[in-house]
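Cross-check.
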Amino acid sequence: MAKGMIALVLTFCLVFLQEGLSYYVSCQMLALGMIAYIVFSHLRSVNAIVWGLIAYAVFGLFLAYTASEAPFIVDRASDNIVKTVIGIMGYAFMIVWLPNVRLVQSQRILILLRSVSSSAILILAGLLIVSESNLIPFLTREGLLQQNVRLIDNFSNQEMISSHLGFSALTGQTVRIDLFYGEGSFLAIVLFACLGCFIQSTRFINRLRVGEESIVGRKNHKQHDAIICIGIISLLYVQSFSSLIYGLVIFYFGFLRDRIEWKHLLNVKAVLILTGLIFCFIAFSYEYLVYRLTTLSDSLSFVQRFGLLQNMGVEEFFIGIKNIALMPEAGIHNGMLYIITVSGIGGIFYMAFICQRAYKLSANIKLSLFSLLLVVAIMVQNGGVFSPNKVVLFSLVMLPLACGQSVNTPRQSIAAPGTSRG
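Predicted model, tokenized:
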């Protein structure tokens, strides 16, 4: 399959990740298929890391114990808990396996990932502009909110949405921004994962440049800064609490950290970019951030994501939750807590291994903490951590790191797709 077609399809699937006819006939499954094709068509070997295998096995054992003792904890709506556990173990294996693969032609995959992530960022930013302009009837905040009814992984119904629109009209409140994802925080995590993939891929590609002639020359550096800035502004404009945090993280790792020295701050271009981003933060997000921080204890979103911690003792952290009375009525909206809930210490061990691999594999591009934050953010975003869309987002973070294992020397040459090296 042509690389250009793969990039086009994968970009399309990222933008419409929650769209489809059903859960399995959907863009998330097509995206997962594209990721699988990229990996298996370039697979050279898999690192057999003993601790990874042990972590996965222990996670599975504790999960099986929870499923046998309290299947409603694993999935309240499941009519076949065995099938559900097999599905969870399958997705869990994909996530833990991704950073341990060794791929041939890894530099070409890095270029592909860089292209896909940058295209997705630009398209999402463009859709934000179009939706705010109200030029196209179905591409407005209200129109996009109404189409949430058909999203494959959304529990809103027409009555709830109509009530929300009516309440917003009466109170003069603006409808939230979510494009095609059902919630602003999901839009934010997709942008964050794409920006992370873009930054990681670019850093690894930079390690492959030779002299002055490189696929990441001056023109590409300007494009790099422009895409980072567009992504940050988009995150600030989304105005969810998580999007603001992601925007600040990208601002530091993608821009500020490399320009923190005085010689860089005196650079006119750096000063203009810095001033522009600070202005966007004040214009779009400062007031909202202050509001969220002052009302954090009363925030439903915060309670849904972290309120379960108040009900968990040492036993729950060790073997998981077995008493349904401890479960919040609205369910678990935090993937890390869900993993601990269903697998206890096994889940903690499993997450620790994934985080350790992300941290270690990005050390040679000096993005260890950044990669760790990306992994944690994807886990925490909502409770559905073992699902096709989450595997796709994890892939955006893990695949560049897997490719980076083959990028051991900073002076290795690289050829762009369709070119040859002499």
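The beta strands are 43-46, 101-103. The CA atoms of residues 178 and 319 lie 37 Å apart. Passed to J.P. for a second look.
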